[in-house]
Each structure stands twice: as structure tokens, then as C-alpha cells.
Design brief:
single chain; about 250 residues; mainly alpha; Fumarate Reductase Iron-sulfur Protein, Chain B, domain 2; two-stranded antiparallel sheet; 2 strands; about 50% helix
Length: about 250
């Protein structure tokens, strides 16, 4: 993508970084195919390609406050920062870096209302602290009849108790479960059920083989670590036989 930054602009580190990211984009639109907000809303400005154009125009015209509005900020706010678009980009555009620069610029040029800033501050403090979030959630559920209607509809029902987590040190194989910030309060039984299933499966299943005996070493769709050596036996309904014997039987 062609950019039009001045020499003076390119002296700023964030503009140089934005210029580098923008120049790597070929505006093919493959990113829109995997963008959840574009798939849901169908608006080009709510897809990665459209947001890239919005940020490009905003950064190239630092004095243009007519076209840079709250609507521009809304389209940038709607991005989930899931980076799904980067997985399908053939040019390797580092979209998340450009988005960080664009969001910082829009916050500077289009300040938010005090009420909106207060709400965002409260969300950052509440949602990122599991204990604080759980305390506020229980408080809201306890006094739900007194909560305003708009907020009352968004309060989830009381979660199912997680119960006693299974002991995970009894198995050789271990699995890490990311609890997250809000899940322990909203659905504490999810991780407990997952751990229970994993514990039951691990205790009932034999160790996985290091190699898949029935997979030929020339298989393209199989990782090399799973490929069997040429001398490995082949599993058949009648039992395991050597590869040489299998070839002889096939020739016959």
C-alpha cells in the first residue's frame, strides 16, 4: 500500500512503524473473510482492510479533524483484537501494531466523554481482577431486584458450584487450564468438569504411542514426528505383520 507521510512525520517512531505496516498491506481483503465483526456487520469499515484505510487517512492527515470523528473511533473500538485476520494475511501485515498506534491517535484527537472514560476505567478494574469481579457479581445477584432494568437483564443467573477439583498430581500427563478473569465467577464448574473429564480419560487410557505404526513415512499430511520408520510393522485386522510380508502379499 502506498503511503504519503512527510519527511517530518517519518521522524516520529510511531509514524515510521505505521508506515512500515501500511506498506506491507496489498489490500487484497483476505483478512475480511476471518474477521468476526465484518462477518457479523458486513461493513467494510468494520473489517481489517477498512480499518487500515481509516487509520492511514487519520495518520497521514494529522490536522484533519473534520473526517476523524467519533464514528472513526467506533469502528476501531469494535475490533476485538483477536488477530484472526493476521492468520490469513498473505503479506504478513502486523495489524495489531497498527491498531495500537491508531487507537492511541484517535484517543488523543477525539477525546471521550467523562462518563465513558469512567465506565471504561471501571471495566478495566473490575474485569481484570477475578476476586473483585466475583464480589461485584455476587453483590449484583443478591440485590438483583433493586438493579436498574437495563443492567438487570445482563446479570447472569447464579453459577453452578464447582465442587471439589480432582487431584491432578496422580497422572504422568498434565494439562494446563487457563482460568481467565471472569470465568471463575461466571462459570466456575466449567474448568472443574474439564479437569474431571481429563482425569477420567487419563486414568482409563493407555499412554499414547510415540509413533503411528500404520502411517507411512512418506505421508505429506502427517508430521514427521508421527511418521513410522520403513521397518515398522503394519496393523491389519488379522494382526501386525512386517512391511516385507505385506508387500509380498500385495504382489500375489
Amino acid at each position: 500500500m502506498q503511503t504519503h507521510f512527510t519527511e517530518e512525520d517519518l521522524k516520529k517512531p510511531h509514524i515510521r512503524e505505521a508506515d512500515r505496516v501500511l506498506r506491507s498491506c496489498v489490500h487484497c481483503g483476505f483478512c475480511n473473510a476471518t474477521c468476526p465483526t465484518y462477518q457479523l456487520l458486513g461493513d467494510e469499515r468494520d473489517g481489517p482492510r477498512g480499518r487500515i484505510y481509516l487509520m492511514k487517512e487519520m495518520l497521514e492527515n494529522p490536522d484533519d479533524d473534520v473526517n476523524v470523528t467519533e464514528q472513526t473511533r467506533l469502528h476501531l473500538d469494535r475490533c476485538l483484537t483477536c488477530r484472526n485476520c493476521e492468520t490469513t494475511c498473505p503479506s504478513g501485515v502486523e495489524y495489531h501494531k497498527l491498531l495500537d498506534i491508531g487507537r492511541a491517535e484517535i484517543e488523543r484527537r477525539v477525546p471521550r466523554k467523562a462518563s465513558e472514560r469512567a465506565m471504561r476505567y471501571g471495566l478495566r478494574k473490575a474485569l481484570t481482577d477475578p476476586r473483585r469481579f466475583q464480589a461485584l457479581l455476587k453483590l449484583g445477584q443478591t440485590f438483583k431486584p433493586l438493579v436498574p432494568g437495563r443492567l438487570k437483564d445482563k446479570l447472569p443467573p447464579k453459577p453452578v458450584d464447582a465442587g471439589v477439583l480432582p487431584e491432578g498430581k496422580t497422572h504422568k500427563r498434565q494439562m494446563l487450564i487457563l482460568e481467565g478473569c471472569v470465568q471463575p465467577g461466571l462459570s466456575p464448574n466449567t474448568n472443574a468438569a474439564t479437569a474431571g473429564c481429563w482425569t477420567g480419560w487419563a486414568s482409563a487410557s493407555p499412554p499414547l504411542p510415540r509413533q503411528a505404526a500404520a502411517v507411512p513415512s512418506t505421508s505429506i499430511s502427517t508430521p514427521r514426528t508421527m511418521a513410522a520408520p520403513a521397518s515398522a510393522p503394519i496393523s491389519t485386522p488379522g494382526g501386525r505383520i512386517s512391511r516385507k510380508k505385506a508387500k509380498r502379499e500385495l504382489k500375489q
